[in-house]
Amino acid sequence: MLFVQVMQGVMEGIFLFLIASGLTLIFGVSRIVNFAHGSFYMVGAFLTYQIYPFIAEGTTLGFFATIAICGLLVAALGLLFEVFLLRRVYHAEELMQLVLTLAAVLIIRDVTKFIWGLDDVSVSLPDALAGAAVIGGTYLPTYQLVMVGVGVAVLAAVWSFLKFTHAGIILRAATDDRGMVALLGTNQAHVFSWVFAIGCFLAGIAGGFAAAFESINYLLDTRVIVLAFIVVVIGGLGNFYGALYASLAVGILKALGLLFAPRLSMVIIFLLMAVVLLIRSLRRTTE
Amino acid sequence: MHRKKLLQISTILALAVGLGGAAQAADPVKIGYVGGISGPCGGLTHSAVKAMKIALEEINAAGGAAGRQVEVVWRDSKTKPDEGAKQTRDLILTEKVDVLTGVCSSSVFMAINPISKQYGVPLVSAISGTHKATVDFGHPFVFQTQPHTLMEGKALAEYAARQDWNNIVTMGLDYEWGRTTVKVFTEELAKLKPEVKISTQLWPRFGETNLTSYITAALAEEPDAIMGVLFGSGTNSLIKQGRSYGLLERTELLTFLSTESYMALGKDIPDGVHGWARGPFYALDSDKAKAFVEKYRKAHDGEYPNDWGMLAYDAMYIIAGGIDAAGGTDPEKFRQALGSTTFDTMRGPMKMRTIDNTFNAPSYLGVTMMTDAYPFPTMSNVTVIPGDVTLPSEDTVKALRAAAAK
């Protein structure tokens, strides 16, 4: 039982990581708290619902192709948002940035309502992914294993990108010291745009995966953003690897909490966040 | 000459005022609608609004209520208690409505209830499920036309007792509706079939849609059945995610399944889920229901009404019928009229009892099955548990009221 719930927690954690990684990447580089991240996630989910029937519905390949396409579409949308709107407030005070991303949340929600209506919609899983690997009475659902695989792939891709490519080096440098990067003659605007697009791509594919996992409606944006923010805060704002550890911790704590203290499992997560924040601030004051 | 003209004008004015006074008697009946047109209730409420508009047209075409035309002022509570309260006050004070209706979400209902009491304006809830407004904090002018949580909990227990289930896990959303329904269900089931064991109780957070950890925790108890008190996205996620865990092969599932879930999930709802509902159009074979469904579909591109649409349509007729029987909108007469009239609704004849102003609305339970009749699965072999069976006893009502008064 313990094993089942831990596995469950890992699977849920990785999915959280898919959502939170984009959020933390964007914050790390451009210092923008992007409230609209959940909205991009929602758009990814609805686009998957819309596009899947046209791309070999029911086949596994069609399903993944759909999600990839939706990720790219959401990335394009994010890029437009960044280039035409967000870019203009990088130098304004933080409040302005918050207001702008919050406005995006409201606009995207209303447009979603307008296009897809108020009712829940749902994407059927291709049959090949609907089963489970049964090991000694423990069910490991294929689809969730696939999501773990995707999470690991994203992790590996981002890690090697940061580690080995020139752009990655600039990114890491920009996270540490934006001013210095600018002084060395790198065009920050491009870095910000690309990171924003990558973050939105991650949100878009996470939304696509969610569409087949749960049922979606126009309130999906706020449903997910709270937990994503908790993860990002626990992991350290802008800390990519921190987000990974935090997602896993949150997922596992939730699953185990259900086993031992079913009524407290969410409280435990908030407690973890409080403790992490406390320790972090104590360390800062002692330094 | 001038004087003459002045006289003429004055006469005309006087006549106009006089006529105006006379016309006032035939002013339309004003109904204030407060509902969650947006916010979490949005997905349920849109069908309710469409249905009420159809009812309104029919009622007015047939001469209105008590000989007056009926007019509705629509307001959006955004499914927020404070917004609902604000809109209600405005409907009463500015719009001077005669009756209030709508209400989705228990918390909004509880926020509006004291305002209806304060101003003595009747409030007829069409959708909200909490019993607290009519039972615990009931007052002479609040009415409920659908089964509330105490009634549903009992209906579920009645149904579960008839099944071969001895070990049950409950999974209720962690808020008012989920908690009360699970509580009443377990209490009533213990009376009906004491040998049934509730092995664990799980409480998913409201709005949580990754239910996989709850599914594994529930299945670990190897229950005969899982009793889910979830709705909308919650129910949908439970069914979708349960599939990968072989949930339906390993146990049985009883959960709230109203029409919009069938429409959202379509064939993703497997055959054999035990569902419960409040107004499933496909299970109602009164002529009234059939005519309404046809009319609704014609007006809305072939879309079917959901449960909330059915309930709202009935509520509008109950309000108009009550005003008719009362011969006007006097709240006290309206109350008495509701208590002494049998209403011919889509869900069959319904009567209200006066102790808690609650109608004997039925609950519907059945097993899902995909048929050729609709593009989505529906419940077959529907068991109707009548409201007369599930209404709480007078003693219970008195005890709850005494406890609430403390």
What would you say this structure looks like, in words?
- The complex is a heterodimer of chains A (about 290) and B (about 400).
- The mean pLDDT of chain A is about 90.
- In chain A, strands 1-2 form a two-stranded antiparallel sheet.
- Chain A has about 290 residues and is an all-alpha fold.
- Chain A has 12 helices and 2 strands, in the order H-H-H-H-H-E-E-H-H-H-H-H-H-H.
- Chain B is of the alpha/beta class.
- Chain B is built from 15 helices and 16 strands.
- Chain B has helices spanning about 1-25, 40-60, 80-95, 105-120, 150-160, 175-190, 210-220, 235-245, 245-250, 260-265, 285-300, 305-325, 330-340, 385-390, 395-405, and strands spanning about 30-35, 70-75, 100, 125, 140-145, 165-170, 195-200, 225-230, 250-255, 275, 345, 350, 350-355, 360, 365-370, 380-385.
- A 7-stranded mixed beta sheet of chain B has the order 7-6-8-9-10-15-16, with helices on both faces.
- Chain B is globular.
- The interface of A and B includes residues 124 and 255 of A.
- Helical fraction of chain B equals 40-55%
Quickly count the helices of chain A: 12
**Oligomeric nature of the chains:** heterodimer
SS-based structural class of chain A? mainly alpha
Shape of chain B: globular
Q: Helices and strands of chain B: which structural class?
A: alpha/beta
**How much strand content do the residues of chain A show?**
under 5%
